[in-house]
Write a structure and sequence with these properties.
115 residues, mainly beta, 4-stranded antiparallel beta sheet
Length: 115
């Protein structure tokens, strides 16, 4: 059974940091590109960052470049999103996604940036 379980969300003040984790099971993790998406309140889901199966290539949305960092550990079967210098506009439900022949989504974790 395929599972993607996100964790690490919460309430943080502007300028603060959070590290999201996504634990994968039920598929060959290293074969899959992994991505983080987010759904801000009242807006469409958007791509935040992605990383190839081997971890050698990453890509970021312009709005988070220089502040967020995606990484993965293929031994632990986890993907991470380090978020620094958080802003109110980063408030969203964050989802991880696995892509290859099939696409899998996690259930999401809430990130709220507010003072």
């Amino acid at each position: 059974q395929v599972q993607l379980v996100e964790s690490g969300g919460g309430l943080v003040q502007p300028g603060g940091s959070l590290r999201l984790s996504c634990a994968a099971s039920g598929f060959t993790f290293s074969w899959y590109a992994m991505s983080w998406y987010r759904s801000p309140p009242g807006k469409e889901r958007e791509l935040v960052a992605s990383i190839t199966g081997g971890g050698g290539s990453t890509d970021y949305a312009a709005s988070v470049k220089g502040r967020f960092s995606i990484s993965r550990d293929n031994v632990k079967r986890e993907v991470y999103l380090q978020m620094n210098s958080l802003k109110g506009d980063d408030t969203a439900v964050y989802y991880c996604k696995a892509d290859r022949a099939k696409t899998y989504w996690g259930q999401g974790t809430q990130v709220t940036v507010s003072s």
